């Protein structure tokens, strides 16, 4: 192929005017109608056929087809309604498959407005398609309708394309006016030309040119199509209800998404005014994402269905939303689209993710977006804010993405320049988290790898107040409308539960090291989970997460240090005097020590309306969703114990429910079982066969250095993959998934995702204890994946445990994975045909035999 070859347009006069086409040219026709575009296509297609070119028609518009089917024409239909990424990726793969030298006809690009509602995204598509078509030495014809797009969209197309040609029809005559012809020039090239058959008569006389252009309306600067639709919707506020409802549904599909249960709920509760209010706080265009939708919908449900019940206790919000189109624009305008396309392939999915992640952390935002970022920061002043992921698939029915993407606190201290730099980097960090390994595995395991996962962003004011140099809310946590951690037969699971902490809620959603949250069963908030009296202090919160204003960072402080400051409310709402520890100190001769505190939230749960309000809030949300829900919240108190709750997030709680009651077999001898326990399991009623047990032995594991412990975790991942499809129980000391190897095995969740049961075994001698992390992101992963959870506290009176039933049998690890011999003294794998695990929620009995 001669890449310098000149190619005919099919009109000899036009060829002369523009010095013909070159391989690699993208030709954009600015037209008044699709019919006029067809008139320029006919000679181009006829010439391509005569030259025996490979001819491809990319069909996506709602207008009549531009070309008729033929044996020498490949018609590729692309569904633009699936969104920008799907469309652009499909076109990319098409161009890649057709290879060099192909000739293309595209439908009118203006028709994409009906699907994407955004001039910006049409410009983005052209920026990603045009260079690739040029690279493969193709010729491609495009059209846009004159005065239908913003000046900036046209400027972007002009900058990217090789030829931009105006096509006018005046008094039944066609005129072509070249606006850009790359790498070609003649003294008459940029004059208008009258098309007469094969001729193109150059209009050089000023009298003729003026007469021609005086009849043509150039149009005024046009708003983005997105803004036009919202302006029309504002005007509909004064019209009848049916018109408002029609406009509302149109805008909801632009902001919230396509048909889904969430969209149905939004349609039921949001008014047109609500949608316009949301849109007024959006930066850019596109969807606001699942986390934003969930938060807004839950608040609206409480407002409407709760009437006056919740409003007096609700903290208002003033959030902003970065539209999902900003994410794509950031990728396109930094020149990374081809890399993203390669990453979306099966072979490139993990291979190219690290490179793309690194680029996402270091890109530049368009100037108009930067200006809107400045305005957000000016609005919040120096109030701390949090930049949160709000992807399209997040917090929806079926996929919670709990903890898979980043949230970044901006303490928002320093000069305007410093605060802006931190805000921009927080957004980049959230964008880059789409390429995190856990997020990639999550999407892959749930069949979402090929779906568009556009990242919108929710920017929220951090709830709380200044307390000296620190900023934090009094309490924060997670709430579930269904309490699947039923540790006592008296627990009413339908009353819901809270996972409660003092300070920022980061400690409520993560499995913390050496620190514990307060689990609150809302049917009886003062009821404690099963533990010995002496363990109340040990299994309580001792570290508080907060924002340090002087350090301008998220940090942690000891409980005593924080409680010594003015809380602007009563300390004893949250903390009680720890008389037991005080007595122990006196016995040790420290009689002069002040009595320490324990964060037990006793008076908060006993003497305030907070637990009742939370129970009713969860119940109402669950009722409207017709599904269990999971919320994140904060609450702040005044000196008279009045309080405001800030509802930060609400999503469907992925759960398979309790299941049908299970009859546990009776044991004539306790030695007849592998283990038995009362309580300390999660996953409902089960009778589950166990095909194999993977057992990590505590002593040899702890004897390893940290590198060795991480190597064991990676080996567990290989076993997890090798045994996929079988019912396997994974057992080990301490906590699965910890980030601290001395407390358990530091696997990623994807490295145990195919297990049917995971069991955390207490090893008091080695100081390794399970953590019943109900309500955390780790728990959410277990529930979504359908993994049954067991915590075994060997040595307790209600626990029977016979590890020798596994360890005395032959280790089949090496036969499964021949390269695993170095780990055979740590990991013991046994096939267990006939083994079953039983659990019954009502009696809280658990048995494995």
From TrEMBL:
InterPro entries: ATP_grasp_subdomain_1, PPDK_AMP/ATP-bd. This is Phosphoenolpyruvate synthase. Transmembrane segments: none annotated. Residues 288-658 form the Pyruvate phosphate dikinase AMP/ATP-binding domain. It comes from Xylanibacillus composti. The lineage of its organism: Bacteria, Bacillati, Bacillota, Bacilli, Bacillales. It holds the Pfam family PPDK_N. GO terms for molecular function: ATP binding; kinase activity.
């Amino acid at each position: 192929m001669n890449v310098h070859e000149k190619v005919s347009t099919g009109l000899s006069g036009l060829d002369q005017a523009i010095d013909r086409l070159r391989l690699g040219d993208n030709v954009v026709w600015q037209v008044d109608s699709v019919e006029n575009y067809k008139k320029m296509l006919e000679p181009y297609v006829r010439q391509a056929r005569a030259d025996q070119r490979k001819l491809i028609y990319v069909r996506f518009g709602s207008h009549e087809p531009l070309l008729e089917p033929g044996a020498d024409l490949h018609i590729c239909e692309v569904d633009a309604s699936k969104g920008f990424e799907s469309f652009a990726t499909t076109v990319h793969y098409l161009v890649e498959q057709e290879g060099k030298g192909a000739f293309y006809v595209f439908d009118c690009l203006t028709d994409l407005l009906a699907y994407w509602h955004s001039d910006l995204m049409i410009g983005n598509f052209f920026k990603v398609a045009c260079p690739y078509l040029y690279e493969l030495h193709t010729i491609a014809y495009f059209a846009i309708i004159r005065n239908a797009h913003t000046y900036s969209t046209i400027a972007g197309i002009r900058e990217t394309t090789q030829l931009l040609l105006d096509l006018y029809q005046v008094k039944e005559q066609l005129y072509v006016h070249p606006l850009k012809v790359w790498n070609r020039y003649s003294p008459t090239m940029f004059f208008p030309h009258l098309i007469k058959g094969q001729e193109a008569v150059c209009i050089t006389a000023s009298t003729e040119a003026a007469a021609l252009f005086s009849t043509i309306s150039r149009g005024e600067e046009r708003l983005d199509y997105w803004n036009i639709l919202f302006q029309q919707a504002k005007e509909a506020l004064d019209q009848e209800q049916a018109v408002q409802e029609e406009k509302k549904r149109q805008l909801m599909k632009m902001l919230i998404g396509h048909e889904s249960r969430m969209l149905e709920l939004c349609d039921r509760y949001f008014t047109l005014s609500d949608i316009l209010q949301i849109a007024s706080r959006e930066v850019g265009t596109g969807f606001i994402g699942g986390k934003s939708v969930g938060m807004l919908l839950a608040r609206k449900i409480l407002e409407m269905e709760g009437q006056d019940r919740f409003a007096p206790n609700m903290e208002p919000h003033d959030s902003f939303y970065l539209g999902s189109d900003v994410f794509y624009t950031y990728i396109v305008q930094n020149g990374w689209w081809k890399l993203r396309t390669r990453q979306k392939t099966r072979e490139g999915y993990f291979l190219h993710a690290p490179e793309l992640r690194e680029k996402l952390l270091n890109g530049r935002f368009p100037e108009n977006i930067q200006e809107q970022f400045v305005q957000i920061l000016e609005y919040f002043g120096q109030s701390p804010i949090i930049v949160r992921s709000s992807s399209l698939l997040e917090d929806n029915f079926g996929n919670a993405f709990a903890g898979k993407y980043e949230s970044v606190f901006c303490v928002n201290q320093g000069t305007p320049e410093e605060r802006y730099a931190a805000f921009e980097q927080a957004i980049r960090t959230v964008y880059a988290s789409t390429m995190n390994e856990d997020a990639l595995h999550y999407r892959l395991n749930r069949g979402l790898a090929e779906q568009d996962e556009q990242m919108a962003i929710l920017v929220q004011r951090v709830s709380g107040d200044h307390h000296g140099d620190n900023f934090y809310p009094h309490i924060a946590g997670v709430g579930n409308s269904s309490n699947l951690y039923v540790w006592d037969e008296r627990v009413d699971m339908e009353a819901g539960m809270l996972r409660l902490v003092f300070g920022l809620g980061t400690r409520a959603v993560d499995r913390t090291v050496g620190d514990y949250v307060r689990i609150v069963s809302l049917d009886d908030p003062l009821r404690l989970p099963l533990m010995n009296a002496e363990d109340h202090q040990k299994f309580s919160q001792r570290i508080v997460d907060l924002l340090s204003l002087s350090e301008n960072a998220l940090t942690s402080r000891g409980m005593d240090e924080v409680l010594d400051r003015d809380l602007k409310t009563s300390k004893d709402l949250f903390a009680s005097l720890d008389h037991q520890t005080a007595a122990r100190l006196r016995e040790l001769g420290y009689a002069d020590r002040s009595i320490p505190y324990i964060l037990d939230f006793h008076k908060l749960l006993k003497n305030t309306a907070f637990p009742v309000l939370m129970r009713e809030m969860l119940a109402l949300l669950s009722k409207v969703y017709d599904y269990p829900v999971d919320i994140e919240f904060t609450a702040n108190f005044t000196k008279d114990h009045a309080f405001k709750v800030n509802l930060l997030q609400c999503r469907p709680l992925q759960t398979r429910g309790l299941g049908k009651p299970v009859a546990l077999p009776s044991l004539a001898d306790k030695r007849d079982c592998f283990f038995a326990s009362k309580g300390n399991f999660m996953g409902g009623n089960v009778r589950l066969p166990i095909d194999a047990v993977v057992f990590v032995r505590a002593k040899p594991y702890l004897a390893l250095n940290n590198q060795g412990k991480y190597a064991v975790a990676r080996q567990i991942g290989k076993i997890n993959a090798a045994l996929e499809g079988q019912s396997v129980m994974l057992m080990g000391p301490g906590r699965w998934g910890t980030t601290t190897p001395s407390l358990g095995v530091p696997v990623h969740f994807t490295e145990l995702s195919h297990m049917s049961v995971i069991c955390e075994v207490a090893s008091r001698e080695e100081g390794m204890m399970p953590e019943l992390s109900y309500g955390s992101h780790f728990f959410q992963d277990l529930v979504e994946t359908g993994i049954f959870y067991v915590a075994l506290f060997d040595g307790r009176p209600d626990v029977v445990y016979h590890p020798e039933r596994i360890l005395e049998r032959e280790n089949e690890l090496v036969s499964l994975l021949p390269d695993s011999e170095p780990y055979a003294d740590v990991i013991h794998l046994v096939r267990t045909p006939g083994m079953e695990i039983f659990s019954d929620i009502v009696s809280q009995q658990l048995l494995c035999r």
